[in-house]
Amino acid sequence: MDPSFEYIFPAIRGIQAGREFYVSMCPLRLLPKIFTFDDEELIPELRAQRVLNKARIPEMARYIISNMNDYVFSAITASIDAKVRFEALGQSGEANRVGSLHIPMDARFIINDGQHRRAAIELALREKPDLADETIAVVFFLDKGLNRCQQMFADLNRYAIRPSKSLGILYDYRDDMALLAKSVVLKSPVFKDVVEMEKSTLSPRARKLFTLSSIYFATNELLESIDGSQEEKTNMAINYWVEVAKYIKEWNLVRARKMTSAEVRREFIHSHGIALQSIGKVGNHLLRNNPANWKRTLKKIENIDWSRSNSQLWEGRCMIGGRVSKSSHNVTLTTNAIKAALSLPLSSSETRVEEAYKRGDYEK
Fold first, then answer.
1. Which of 129, 234, 320, 353 has the fewest CB atoms below 10 angstroms from its CB?
2. What DSSP designation does 221 have?
3. For the chain, what are the domain ranges?
4. What is the pLDDT at residue 41?
């Protein structure tokens, strides 16, 4: 290709591990044109990227489109397999680090980190062409050969850790349910000072009784398909959990500092996420089908033996081999047990799961 045809990016030059790299801004309209994917049919040893998880792309694209005024995407990291030229604005100081990066149009670009962002942007552009002139940061590394690309992918992802679900909920101001769950935790006397707001798992000696993520999922189940304003649903959830707490004495003993959270979690299953989610599902049934007398029906929950030692009831439902299991199958079986204690009917899907469980036709 004629070397006079090239991409020119405004860039800042840096040094990392003795190698030059460049930071620039790329218009979104150019991303699909210059950043391509490896052939997905190639075996992993010959690729420089993971296979694109196409199921993630529509959700990421919807995030951009739904938040046109405040979406946030971090920088894309890419390798360039070509001879590039950097023209600095000056010969010394800061001027020597700022300039323009000239890249031949026949250069090969490989995304080391951000291929799903790139695909989501391409999809979003089809629906919202106005995004074309917006930009995303790109970090360019010079690379010739597959080995370096593969090593960069490994290095960039080596210490990447997804935040816990609780922390994601805590910092999320877009999700109405996240906002509602946080309000319930802050306003309800049941959860005050006993909810871990950042971690989604509790150590055996943890001082907290619940996690924010478990309250989130349980309250989501409680309010499924229930109409009302955010304030109305928040109050409804608070009232429900206050009523539940009246009949689970160990929760009250923890707040009164007469039992530790560690003791309760070790001996009982009612503070674990699967039990909370199941209690939430039962509450949803009560609020939708018996709104006037749900409290009277819920009172029967005090007769349930929530202790782990009650293996005759809980083994195979919410415990497998004595360990708490949180699969959707186990949530349904635990919900069924609570409904039975409250003399509530099972739905058709719950009945199918229950029958399979009684036949022994279920996965352990």
1. 129
2. H
3. 6-158, 165-359
4. 42
